[in-house]
Write a structure and sequence with these properties.
single chain, mainly alpha, 9 helices, about 70% helix, about 0% strand
């Protein structure tokens, strides 16, 4: 499975948009939680007003996410219905097409956005942000998955799977930046290496000539297995009424947090910044 710059199909493009929306929602939540709180009755009223406004804003954006995923399902059912017959192989191709298009921040950007924080503190903030973003996708799919046709439901599962995997690969890439273990090569080769790290649940191994996921390799098969298993978990978001929203959100948050912590621990042990960033 070589690095690919092929254009993603319509469902994967919808997943890329979902990644951006969900990450932005998580970032807004983080900023708001860090806002100073005013004391007294006036401060209490202002806090309730802000909380109500945030809740309304989040509900509105979650609805937009769910509607976008459902719309992609309707438009892409025929395309993805054919691809899904090949299971993890189709998902693998779409992930490799999506990965180079993910908005990954480099170390300088991350340090400017998280000033005066250690590598571990930045990593923990990224993990929590990604966990919130993937939970938002699960909630959005669960709240809006009311389409009765199996082919369309299959595309909703595929879209959620690709969206959450996109959030997690972005997290993997940024954790490598935080700990100073950036993959070599251009953006396609670099992001393909991070896809491999996502599949293996550990940081990349730097080797001469870079890292390539070769066709038929154990890593390529591992990627397909991981994606097939991830799609299976996405089915929980299609539960009746709002049970799918609750299950999807909880499962996504837990799995993304688990992945992030595994990568953080592995990268920390090999990081050139174990004593902190140079001044």
């Amino acid at each position: 499975m070589e690095p690919t710059g092929n254009e993603p199909d319509e469902v994967t493009r919808a997943a890329l948009e979902t990644v951006s929306e969900a990450v932005e929602l998580a970032t807004q939540d983080e900023r708001r939680s860090a806002e100073p709180r005013k004391r007294g009755l006036r401060g209490l009223r202002a806090r309730f007003a802000r909380r109500a406004a945030r809740r309304a804003d989040r509900v509105s954006k979650t609805r937009r996410l769910g509607a976008a995923i459902s719309d992609a399902a309707r438009r892409g059912a025929r395309i993805t219905g054919r691809g899904m017959s090949s299971g993890g192989k189709w998902l693998s191709g779409q992930v490799l097409a999506m990965a180079p298009r993910l908005p990954v921040r480099d170390l300088a950007t991350l340090r400017s956005q998280y000033p005066d924080r250690s590598p571990d503190q930045i990593a923990d903030a990224l993990i929590e942000g990604a966990s919130r973003a993937s939970a938002t996708v699960g909630v959005a799919v669960g709240a809006w998955s009311m389409l009765p046709f199996v082919p369309v439901a299959g595309v909703e599962v595929a879209t959620e799977t690709l969206s959450v995997v996109g959030i997690e690969i972005k997290l993997v890439a940024e954790l490598h930046e935080v700990y100073g273990i950036r993959a070599p090569g251009g953006v396609i080769e670099r992001m393909t290496a991070y896809v491999g790290a996502w599949a293996s649940r550990r940081g990349i191994a730097l080797a001469p000539g870079g890292l390539v996921v070769a066709a038929g390799s154990p890593l390529a098969r591992q990627l397909q297995r991981r994606l097939t298993a991830r799609a299976g978990r996405s089915v929980f978001s299609l539960g009746p009424l709002l049970t799918g929203a609750v299950a999807g959100g909880l499962i996504n948050r837990r799995e993304t947090r688990k992945l992030g912590r595994m990568l953080r621990d592995d990268l920390r042990a090999r990081s050139p910044f174990q004593a902190g960033y140079p001044i």
